[in-house]
Amino acid sequence: MIKTTFHISQMDCPSEEALIRMKLESLKTIKSLEFDLEGRTLFVFHTDENPEILNRLNSLKLGTKKTGTVEVADTAITEEANHSRLLWTVLFINFGFFIIEMTTGLVSKSMGLVADSLDMLADSVVYGLSLWAVGAALSRKKLVARMSGWFQIILALLGLAEVVRRFLYSDVIPNYQIMIIVASLALVANVVSIYILQKTKSKDAHIQASKIFTSNDIIINIGIIGAAILVMATNSMIPDLVIGAIVFLIVVRGAVRILKLG
Length: 262
Description:
Elements: E1 2-8, H1 14-24, E2 30-36, E3 41-46, H2 51-59, E4 64-71, H3 84-108, H4 111-131, H5 138-169, H6 176-198, H7 205-234, H8 238-259
Antiparallel strand pairs: 1-3, 1-4, 2-3
């Protein structure tokens, strides 16, 4: 078994990981991929030398550089199935809070909660694409990626338009109590997700991706709680609109990366 190491300078989030997986999965010589997102490093385990691996990585224009190749034992390949249960748990937590935050966001008139619900949905989509059975048709995966990417972009742009509309024409103050309660629950859920993921010391790609996603979600949850406190203190909708716009832009950025999967 051959282990080839690539440094990918622009690989800093799970969306790029999913993009790379889609690009390489049809190569039969590849047996496993491992990602170190913090170190921006990709480890490819394959049976034969294949220049097409580097060609496909270069086509993504993510700043790929081959840094080394070594012979390794077959047992060095990470078994992704060992961690799938953890990832499914995190996926369901994210999707569950997408529903909760979307519903309560609409009820409370909070753009922050609505935006965070879409961020939870975006996370769930990437988790789902990554966990999809290996045997599924590549064309089907790409179709789902494109559909989900456009769906998220449309919803995020509608959300940004609503932020602008409220800023120009509305004086509705969101319910800061609901914002604090729901964002706090989401914060607890994400902390639980981190705890679940920390139970394994694995460097598995999906586990590392999930940790990064969930850490980002915790920051967003704290931002929404802070915005709610400012709404309460200032009796203004502006803090909610600001945090909502920021998160909507995060969703658009993630969705654009998902569209690259096609």
